[in-house]
Every structure is written in structure tokens, then in C-alpha cells.
Amino acid sequence: MATTANGLITVRLHTAAEHDDEFNDWYNLEHVPQLTALPGFVRTRRYFCEKSDIRYLAWYETADETVEAAKDFQHIVTHPTPWSLRMRKHYGNNRERMNFKLMCEVGDSPAADAPWMYIVHTDIPDHIVDEYNAWYDKEHLPRCAAIPGVFRARRYMSTGIAGGDADRPRYLTAYELAGPDVWESPAALQARKTPWTEKMRSLFSNTRRALYRLVAPTVTHAQARAQQRISVT
Q1: For a Cys-Cys bond, which of 7, 74, 115, 201 suits 65, CB 3.0-4.6 Å?
Q2: Residue 194: helix, strand or coil by DSSP?
């Protein structure tokens, strides 16, 4: 089984606060093990954002960007369990699934799960994409990954496989952080203060930024497989 994650599936969900306990039990006890045990899934974590209309984020790292379209994943989507059907009634249309492929990675995977993650979604005009990619890979990601308290920086591009992707930002960048204040520290502000950065950011569109707190630690493919076997016996 692959241990390198070159793909990513993100699922943002929101449910009313009175359903939070059952929602988290469903995710942690059934849904995450069910999906992460599938072929092509490498590991999964879950996050929470207090300042977002869609508060929860499931972060599924996959072998590559083809996993979402594979029959195993699609079978889960089209044949939900009774508990999944119940939870769908709670979150309704407050859900967004996106599929990505990894473009660039700077830094090492932290020994333990980073407790915070800062995420930027954005679009960029087609005529500037080449410069945008060069800026990110040659200047911006290395500078940001060097900020004290930043463990790793990764950049992704949406594949557009998931339904309803037309209005969603094409690019995603994720920074794994040691604390909630890292991204607004003096070192972070200085790292983002360059003429090239100012130029590129002025061209961003459809941009979303959010700080997420880890709420459920990593579940690996092997752990999910073991949990599935236990639940069957």
C-alpha cells in the first residue's frame, strides 16, 4: 500500500451544534475508518474552524488524484450506511467535496500531527498561471516554510472531478503550524512582504482563507484496515 500521498480529498461539512456529538462519533467511529481503509487512501485527519460557516474539515490524503473516481470510493458515496444517511439529513447542502493533486511540498512531515493548519484557496487568471506557479514554488512556499512554527507547506491543484467544482477555487495551499498565532507573527508577516508577493496577491480571485484546529488525529490506512477487521469479528 502506498505511503506517499500525492493526492488529496477535502470534505467540508457543517451541522447544527446540537448534533455535534453524534456527528463526531459518526465521523470518528464509522466514516473515517470506512473511507481510509479503501485502496488508495493513505491517511486522514479532521479539523475545525470556529470562524467558518462550514465548520468541519476532513482531510483525506490519497496515493494520487485518481482515488476519488475509483469504484471503491464511489461505491461508498452511492451506497451510504444507515448512519451516514441519518447524518446526511443533518448537514444537508452544507457540504463541499474537492479533489486535488499535489504540486509542491516544502518541509518535513511533523513527527506528531500539527495542531493547527492555515489554508488558502484561490484562483488566478490563466494568462499569469506560469508566473504564479514560479512565484509559489521558487519564492513564496520556501519563505513561508522557513517561518518559525511552520512545519510544512504544501500546494495543490483541483482536478475538477467532484461534482459542482465550477465555482470553487482551483488552487489550495496548506501550512501546518505549531500554534494559532504563527501565521500573524512578525516573522510570518516579513516572509510575505516581497514585491513579487504583492504583485501575485493583487491578482488573486475567489480567495478563501481559514485557520483550522486539529480535532481528530491521523488515522492511517493500516489502522483503518485493522479497525474494520475488528468491527467485523
Answers
A1: 7
A2: coil
Residue 108: phi, psi to the nearest 5? Answer: -105, 150
- Per-residue pLDDT, 156: 98
pLDDT confidence of residue 161: 55
Q: How far apart are CA 56 and CA 134, in angstroms?
A: 32
Encoded amino acid at 61, one letter: E
pLDDT tens-digit series, residues 48-94: 999 888 999 999 999 999 999 999 999 999 999 999 999 999 998 88
CB 4 within 8 A of CB 42: yes
What stretch of H or E contains 223? helix 221-232
The model's pTM = 0.93
Question: Dihedral through CA 188, CA 106, CA 208, CA 90, nearest 10?
Answer: -120
| Torsion angle defined by CA atoms of residues 145, 146, 150 and 154, in that order, rounded to the nearest 10 degrees | 10
- Angle among Cα 211, 216, 219 to the nearest 5 degrees reads 120
